[in-house]
Amino acid sequence: MSTNGNWLARITATTAPGSVVLIRLYVGAVFLFEGILKFLRPETLGTGRFDKTGIPAAGFVAPLDGVFEIGCGALILVGLLTRLAAIPMIVDMIGALLITKLPILWGTAALFTGKSGWWDFVHESRVDLAQLCGSLFLLIVGAGAYSADAALGQGTGSRR
What is the pTM for the complete model shown? Predict the structure, then answer.
């Protein structure tokens, strides 16, 4: 039992200031809304988009990604198990950058025809990079003072 309590305490520990809520609101809302949009607009943002990029089993992977974005986005918004929720979103953003954005550099991106080179890559990657950096930040500092994690851990613990 103490091992489980210790694990939870380490995951929820945060000494980050309350202002972290601004990062959580941005990162969580974008993931939540994009996850919902995968179901509302499957042809352009869900299965159809995944299929167009060549992701195998797009009919399974796109909804699974949507569920993770909705679930993790909601957890990040309220600041519950924030570090744990940030991990799949980091993987999600690395995947999005590698599969959909990196090919822009060579002009071979299925979703961005007619775009190539560094500046098109940087432009089209801006939200993915912001989400990746925000998720990494939350993984490092935790949810901050105004969060469910802080309430669970009484705001004590060390930054990890």
Answer: 0.89
